[in-house]
Design brief:
This protein is of the alpha/beta class. The protein has 13 helices and 15 strands. Bound molecules: pyridoxal-5'-phosphate. Keywords: Aminotransferase, Pyridoxal phosphate, Transferase.
C-alpha cells in the first residue's frame, strides 16, 4: 500500500507530473532541450522573484550548496546555522578546504539580524550562508530583516538555502539581496528527488572568477558560462526526465494554481497543524518564526513516535520523527507541495484516533 507522505521531502508527486518522468528521451543538445531549460528558468525566476540567472543541477540541493560555498568564497565564509542543514553547510565548506566559521544558535531559534551584523562588521567574511526554512527545527528565518543588514556589506556574497520553502512560501531573492538561492525538486516544488535549482547573480559571477579551485561538476561559474554560450544547455547530461516534469509542474504551479493561492494553501495547512499541536502538544520552535511548509511538534506527551508512525503506516500515512538530536523529542508533519488542508485534517483525525485524543 502506498503511504501518503507527510514528511518534509520527498513528497507525493501528482500522477500527471509523475507521468512526465517517463516521456521518451530527446537529445540533450537539441533545440527542444534548450527550449525546456529556458522555460524552466523563466518560471523559476517567478518563484524566486529574481531577474538574475538560473542554474539547474542534476544533483539534490546539497550539490548546489556545496558548489556555492566552494565556487564563491574567496576569503572566508560565515555559516549561520539554526539546525542540521546549516551545520551541513559548514561541513561542506570545511571538507572543501574553504575557510569558514560557524555561528549556531540554540535549535528552535532563528538567526537574528543583529547576529549577522555583528559577524559581518568584523570584515573577515566575503560570503555568508543562511537557511531560510530549517527542516530539522521547523524554523523560518526573518529574511526581510536579515536582508536589510546584509545590504550594508556589498562585498559579501549571500547564499540562501530555500530547499524546503521554495514554491511553498513567498521568496524575495532580489529584494533580500540574495546572490545564490537554492531549491530542490523533491520538497514544496512537488517532483521526485534528483534535481536542484539556484539563482546566480552577477555579483556571484564576478566573485567566482576570483576563486581559483572551484571544482568541476559543481563549479557554478562553469555552469553559468556554458548556458550563456550554448543556449541553456549544460556541460554534462542533465536529467531530462526531471526537466520534462519540472516544466510541466511549474506551469501548473504558476499558471493553473497561481503562486498566491499556493502560498495561501501552505499557510492554511500549517495553521491546521499548529492549532492541533497547541491543543494536544506544543510547538517546538519559537512561535514568531514558524515554518509554513512543515511543523515541528514538541513531544510533550512522551508518545512513542516510532509506534505512532507504524500505526499510521498501517492506515496509509507517514510522518517524520525528530531530526538528529531531536529524535523522539519532537515529530514533524509536513504540509507542503500538493498537500491540501483537507488531507492535513484527515491525517490529524487518524492520529487522534490512534492516540485516543479528542
Ligand atoms: C532537504 C534539505 C536539504 C538537503 O537537500 P537535498 O535535496 O536532500 O540535498 C538542505 N536544506 C534543507 C533546509 C532541507 O530541507
Amino acid at each position: 500500500m502506498h503511504k501518503r507522505l507527510f514528511i518534509p521531502g520527498p513528497v507525493d508527486v501528482a500522477p500527471d507530473v509523475l507521468e512526465k518522468m517517463s516521456m521518451p528521451m530527446i537529445g540533450h543538445r537539441s533545440k527542444e532541450a534548450s527550449r525546456i531549460q529556458r522555460t524552466i528558468s523563466e518560471y523559476m525566476r517567478k518563484i524566486f522573484n529574481t531577474k538574475e540567472e538560473i542554474l539547474v543541477s542534476t544533483s539534490s540541493g546539497s550539490g548546489l550548496m556545496e558548489g556555492a560555498v566552494r565556487s564563491c568564497t574567496a576569503k572566508r565564509a560565515a555559516i549561520f546555522s539554526i539546525g542540521a542543514f546549516g551545520n551541513r553547510w559548514y561541513d561542506m565548506a570545511i571538507s572543501n578546504n574553504v575557510p569558514a566559521d560557524k555561528f549556531e544558535v540554540e535549535w528552535g531559534k532563528p538567526t537574528t539580524p543583529e547576529q549577522v551584523d555583528e559577524v559581518l562588521a568584523t570584515g573577515k567574511y566575503d560570503l555568508i550562508t543562511v537557511t531560510h526554512n530549517e527542516t530539522s527545527t521547523g524554523v523560518m528565518n526573518p529574511l526581510d530583516e536579515i536582508g536589510n543588514v546584509v545590504k550594508k556589506y556589498p562585498n559579501v556574497v549571500f547564499c540562501l538555502d530555500t530547499v524546503s520553502s521554495a514554491a511553498g512560501t513567498e521568496l524575495k531573492v532580489d529584494e533580500w539581496g540574495v546572490d545564490i538561492c537554492i531549491a530542490s525538486t523533491q520538497k514544496a516544488i512537488g517532483l521526485p528527488p534528483g534535481m536542484s535549482v539556484c539563482t546566480f547573480s552577477q555579483k556571484a559571477v564576478e566573485r567566482a572568477k576570483e576563486v581559483p579551485n572551484r571544482g568541476m561538476y559543481l563549479d557554478l561559474l562553469s555552469l553559468y558560462n556554458y548556458i550563456q554560450k550554448k543556449d541553456y544547455q549544460y556541460p554534462s547530461t542533465p536529467s531530462l526526465s526531471h526537466m520534462f516534469a519540472l516544466e510541466y509542474q511549474l506551469d501548473k504551479i504558476i499558471n493553473k494554481e497561481g503562486l498566491e493561492n499556493r502560498y495561501k494553501r501552505h499557510i492554511e495547512g500549517g495553521e491546521i497543524v499548529r492549532n492541533w499541536a497547541r491543543k494536544h502538544f506544543e510547538i517546538f520552535p519559537d512561535e514568531n518564526y514558524m515554518s509554513n511548509t512543515l511543523t515541528n511538534v514538541k513531544n510533550t506527551r512522551n508518545i512513542d513516535v516510532a509506534a505512532l508512525n507504524k500505526a499510521l503506516g498501517e492506515r496509509g500515512y507517514q510522518i517524520s520523527n525528530g531530526y538528529g538530536k531531536l529524535k523522539d523529542k519532537t515529530f514533524r508533519i509536513a504540509h507542503m507541495a500538493e498537500t491540501t488542508p483537507e488531507e492535513v485534517k484527515e491525517l490529524l483525525k487518524v492520529i487522534d484516533e490512534i492516540l485516543g485524543l479528542n
